[in-house]
Specification:
The protein is α+β, with helices and mostly antiparallel strands and 153 residues long. The protein has 2 domains: 3-12 and 131-150, no CATH class; 19-122. It is built from 2 helices and 11 strands. It has a 5-stranded antiparallel sheet with strand order 6-3-8-9-10, covered by helices on one side.
Amino acid sequence: MCRIADQSRTLAPMTDRITVAVEVPLVGDERLKNWAKVVESVDSSRASGWAFEGPFVAPGGIQDVPTGSVLLVYGEKGSRGNPQPHARVYRVNGDATLTLEGEAKGRAWARTIRDVVERCLDMEPVRVDLSGVSDETLAAELIARGWSVEPPR
């Protein structure tokens, strides 16, 4: 174990999640509308994409996302005149992978997938097990984040 020497900084609560770099998939055709969002809450009074609240992230590339997050990815296929909506819900794992929790197609995609998103938000948060990480690695990470760390006596 390492002891944190800088007492002026307080530790973040245990509920804070670690971010991991994940490949956010691109759903649909890149020439049409597409977006991704880390969903933090759902407005059950809405049956459109506006029901899902949280920050947007760019699809089709690597993004830093908190572990255990619910990731909603939306895209359209077809033509500009007749786009076909497609949405997928993923859970972000601690090993930087995504687990597909559900998907929906068609105009009613938001209402179709809303219950899946709400279920995912109600799941127990993912805890990252750091017991396999060496003390030296943990200390190096804390130092990189600006902490003063010294070995135990």
